[in-house]
Amino acid sequence: MRRRSLLIAVPAGLTTLAACGDDKSDSSKASDSPSPSASAPSAAPPPKIVDGPLPAVTAGTKFDEKPTIAKGSGEPSKQLAVKTLIAGSGKTVAENDFVVANYLGQVWSTGKVFDNSYDRKTRLAIQLSQGRIIDGWRYALAGKKAGSRVEMAVPPTWGYGSQGNPQAGIKGTDTLVFVVDVQDTFNATSSAKGEKVPQDDADLPKVGTNTDGKAPSIEVPKAAAPTKLVAEYVLEGDGDEVAAGDSVLVQYKGVLWDGGKEFDSSYANKQLVSFSLQQVVKGWAQGLTGKKVGSRVLIVIPPKLGYGDNPPQGSGIKKDSTLVFSVDILAKL
After folding, report:
1. Where in the chain is the domain with CATH 3.10.50.40?
2. CA–CA separation, 40 vs 131, rounded Å?
3. Chain-centroid distance, C-alpha 69
4. DSSP labels for 150-172?
5. CB-based burial label for 236 (10 Å; 0-12, 13-18, 19+)
6. In a 3-state reduction of DSSP, which class is residue 189?
7. Interval 39-87: pLDDT, tens
8. Does position 7 have pLDDT exceeding 70, yes or no?
9. CB of 81 within 8 A of CB of 158?
10. Does the pLDDT of residue 202 top 70, yes or no?
11. Closest listed residue to residue 289, CA positions, set 327, 262, 252, 317
12. Which CATH class for the 195-332 domain?
């Protein structure tokens, strides 16, 4: 069993997408390296945001380049030091958003790098909510714009507290330095924004094309369910194609072919979902592979590529059910 990345928690609803018979219902690609997650909600008051001191970035100074950061000099601030190294012009980050970012973290006093996403070549979807991420990130990134590079020095009060993070070699007295490249930001009202594609097949479900953040309608025809996987654009985006080994950030809604009853929805949960395509049912993995970021995709999954005779308990899915999904691909991680 691969361990869940410490940075990302499993959102509600993901269990009905996870492949049966495993324990891989992570919400991102698994990683054995520590990340700035929070083990419990913090009771610390909000910090004062100060300009420094902050160590210099000595190499990799461009946006989305792996940075090299000098060791901290002297005593760090006891408050949260934050500096925008590169100012972006994209959407503004708000608390509870999912921020898609690359980042590197190291210890102030030693310069030891304890985690970075650049070497993994996998961006992370980081939710800025209390209890999911250390408070330093919440306060430092809120209000920044996508396309920004942000450096921060996080003292223990808004990091891991007096307990530190032994797994990462972080002591309870360590101030942590991060450089974060904010790629994009999404929230529970985010939608695909692609071009409408004709839905002309009367034997397939029709999916709504609204892009207002509300759940699209799914109208299931009174016809026999297809026996093969269906994966068709409803809205076709212009982003990168998703590969079989990628992780994605999505909005989705799932209904049963028989009766059209909704059994799961990120819209209803008010919670975006991120996961690796290697961790979900075959119908999802095959249906999203090759599709473009920014798209809304209709996926019809026959039982053999879904849950077959072993649906998740409490899901409302009967044995040998054909499943219908609308999936908005917001980002490739």
Report:
1. 33-186, 195-332
2. 5
3. 26
4. EEEEE-GGGTTGGG-BGGGTB-T
5. middle
6. coil
7. 556 678 999 999 999 999 999 999 999 999 999 999 999 999 999 999 9
8. no
9. no
10. yes
11. 327
12. alpha beta
CA-nearest of 64, 71, 129 to 102 is 64
Contact between residue 304 and residue 203 where contact means Cβ atoms under 8 Å apart:
no
In 3-state terms, what secondary structure has residue 282? helix
User: Contact, 254 vs 263, CB < 8 A?
Assistant: yes
> Which has the closest alpha carbon to 333: 148, 142, 101?
101
Task: Output the six-digit token pair for 272.
Answer: 């975006």
Beta partners for 85?
Answer: none
Amino acid letter at 10?
V
Is 50 exceeded by the pLDDT of residue 184?
yes
Helix H or strand E segment including 332? strand 323-332
**Token digits of residue 94:** 């708000």
Residue 117 carries which side chain, given as an amino acid letter? S
How far apart CA 106 and CA 252 sit, in angstroms, is: 36
Domain 33-186: CATH architecture, name and number where available: Roll (3.10)
